[in-house]
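Q: I'm building a small set of examples for a reading group on sequence design. Run inverse folding on the following structure and report the sequence directly after it, with nothing in between.
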């Protein structure tokens, strides 16, 4: 199936008629093409967005909200089609797309449909000076949204929903590796009555299409989720133009397990936090630290549980681990397993490429657990972003805190303990934007989301997202 750009409410081919093959990771076959868009396509998308902005920014909040709710309802009505499309494009189990990805995309639109009606600005009375200040929150104009391949529609909509709710018009690019559900979203937006030009979706490569969005002098804000290296490149281009930037980048998240935790719940959740979505979630706990008292028991139980996970075709209902997103990514993840062995890591289970009957060219890898003797090794420091976790023991709270913080990333951290004092101390001291205690990936969309250090700049979620997509203007009136 071929994909087209969605510009000014119309589906259209790229100006230069260049195309990119779209692969199905479950069988390694090309199943369609997408536009290899260039600056000309981005310019057209910008012009459409610019023309739509005066009316959209003056559309009442209630009317905007109604359209966002309609998009959400349509996504729910088309759940099966969207889940199958996401799975085919990305390799994730259909069951996962059906329970996590697409429902969350629908929630994103529903959440911001409501949030925009509650978004208030402040006023300050300058007492004794006969003056009052009030703050307007005005849409920026045309904004750029660029998203990655791991949770395609989930993260694409996490940016687009607040951007348009706040009255902006958007030029957006999904990952070139997973463009399908963004393409389908265009159809949904038209059906929901979103005015032409409010959302424009341009497909193509990061280094051409993505770069053209970032370089466009009149796209004044960029919301980006992706790798840390790409984020740094974008920041360098955007800085001289003083663009507003939100950067959600990589992670190498610690999962810290104390002996006093609720063991069974911890074990089941740790299997999930290690391997959900083939370990391709920026929030996965890829470094597991276990208190020495329970280390051997945990090691055995964890490895036994991981061995039960079924690697299989994404459409099979019993599949736990689907295909990795691309051949290139599979090779990168596999190379890290070889690096671990060279660094004296012990592969406790997994480590091999899997050939599934009938789908021998798909990109499958066993879920892999590596025991490491030092937290300094490369597999413990660098983001692998696949079904690979490391485990190692620790003796004291102080020691584990040092190890947890000794990476360049700071996205999330998970803590398993029933000790309140320890919980409070470590939650304060862990260098992360998000700390989960006795749970993982529990999300309330009102809360701030983002990382510290090389994991990013800025926060998404709730009013933080609406603040990012608006400019504050203070008005001071003397009376
Ligand atoms: P990339 O950084 O490679 O790509 C992200 C997006 O940016 C893609 O749409 C990509 O296009 C585009 N892009 C690439 N180069 C440029 C450029 N020079 N200018 C503008 N756009 C560009 O990340 P991945 O897609 O590989 O995603 C995986 C990464 O995303 C991991 O590091 C992961 O941790 C991170 N991530 C972070 C999250 C967070 O919330 N902090 C959440 C999810 C993932 P193309 O696909 O064509 O290259």
């Amino acid at each position: 199936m071929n994909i087209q750009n969605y510009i000014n409410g119309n589906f259209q081919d790229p100006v230069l008629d260049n195309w990119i093959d779209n692969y199905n990771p479950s069988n390694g076959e090309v199943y369609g093409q997408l536009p290899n868009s260039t600056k000309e396509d981005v310019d057209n998308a910008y012009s459409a967005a610019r023309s739509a902005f005066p009316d959209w920014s003056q559309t009442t909040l209630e009317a905007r909200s109604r359209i966002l709710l309609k998009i959400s309802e349509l996504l729910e009505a088309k759940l099966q089609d969207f889940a199958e499309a996401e799975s085919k494009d990305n390799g994730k189990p259909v069951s996962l797309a059906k329970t996590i990805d697409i429902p969350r995309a629908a929630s994103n639109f529903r959440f911001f449909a409501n949030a925009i009606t509650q978004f208030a600005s402040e006023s300050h009375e300058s007492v004794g000076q006969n003056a009052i200040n009030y703050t307007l929150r005005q849409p920026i104009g045309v904004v750029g949204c660029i998203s990655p391949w791991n949770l395609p529609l989930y993260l694409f909509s996490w940016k687009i929903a607040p951007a348009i709710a706040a009255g902006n018009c958007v030029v957006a690019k999904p990952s070139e590796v997973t463009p399908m559900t963004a393409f389908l979203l265009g159809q949904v937006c038209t059906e929901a009555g979103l005015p032409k030009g409010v959302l424009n979706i341009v497909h193509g490569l990061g280094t051409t299409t993505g770069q053209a969005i970032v370089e466009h002098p009149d796209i004044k804000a960029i919301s980006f989720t992706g790798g840390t290296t790409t984020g740094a490149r974008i920041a360098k281009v955007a800085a001289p133009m003083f663009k507003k930037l939100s950067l959600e980048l990589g992670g190498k998240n610690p999962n810290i397990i104390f002996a006093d935790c609720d063991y069974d719940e911890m074990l089941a959740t740790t299997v999930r936090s290690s391997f959900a979505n083939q370990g391709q979630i920026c929030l996965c706990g890829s470094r597991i630290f276990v208190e020495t008292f329970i280390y051997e028991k945990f090691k055995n139980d964890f490895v036994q549980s991981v061995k039960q996970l079924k690697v299989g075709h994404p459409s099979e209902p019993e599949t736990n681990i689907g295909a990795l997103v691309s051949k290139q990514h599979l090779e990168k993840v596999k190379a890290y397993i070889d690096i671990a062995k060279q660094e004296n890591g012990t592969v406790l289970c997994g480590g091999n490429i899997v050939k599934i009957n009938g789908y021998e060219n798909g990109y499958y890898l066993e879920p892999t657990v590596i025991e490491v003797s030092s937290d300094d090794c490369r597999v413990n420091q660098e983001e692998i972003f696949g079904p690979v976790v490391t485990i190692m023991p620790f003796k004291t709270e102080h020691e584990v805190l040092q190890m947890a913080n000794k990476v360049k990333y700071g996205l999330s951290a998970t803590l398993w303990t029933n000790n309140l004092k320890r919980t409070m101390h470590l939650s304060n001291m862990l260098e992360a934007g998000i700390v989960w205690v006795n749970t993982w990936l529990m999300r309330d969309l009102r809360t701030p989301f983002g990382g510290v250090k090389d994991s990013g700049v800025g926060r998404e979620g709730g009013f933080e997202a609406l603040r990012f997509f608006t400019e504050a203007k203070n008005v001071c009136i003397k009376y």
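The mean pLDDT is 98.
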